[in-house]
Amino acid sequence: MLLERILEATFPHESGAARVQQVGLFTLIYVLQGDREPVTAKRLAEMTGQPAGDIGEQLQKLIALDLLERKQILNRQGRGRAYHLAVKQNGKTRRLTKAIDKAASSKK
Questions:
Q1: Residue 108 in 3-state DSSP?
Q2: Per-residue DSSP letters for 26-60?
């Protein structure tokens, strides 16, 4: 029940499918943000097998909901630009990350 309330409050007015996509991307970013390799839309698209445009659309929604922040970086080749994605630190994200952490620790 608690998780349902968190999801409804964090992702209001979204269809079930869109909510699942956004929660999935948020969770991936949260888990990957400690890696050496930056979390980018391209990396997420490669990992999930989803088109980059679909990933970008869901990322824009997460940014608009104030859940993610973007920082411009050089791309892998060092010539172009990419955006490093990270989870913002605010009340919404703390509730989500706490729920993710709790679910992960209960599986151990």
A1: coil
A2: HHHHHHHTTSSS---HHHHHHHHT--HHHHHHHHH
Cβ proximity of 93 and 87 under 8 Å:
yes
Letter for the amino acid at 19? R
Rounded to an integer, what distance in angstroms lies between the CA atom of residue 53 and that of residue 66?
20
- In this prediction the pTM is 0.85
Cα 80 to Cα 63, 71, 75: the distances in Å are: 22, 14, 5
Q: Where are the domains of the chain?
A: 2-100
Query: Which one, of 13, 30, 9, 11, lies nearest residue 22 by Cα?
Result: 11
pLDDT digits (tens, 9 = 90+) for 12-62: 888 888 888 898 999 999 999 989 999 999 999 999 999 999 999 999 999
Domain boundaries 2-100, CATH class: mainly alpha
User: Distance of alpha carbon 1 from its chain centroid, rounded?
Assistant: 22
User: pLDDT for 69-89, tens place per residue?
Assistant: 999 988 777 778 889 999 999
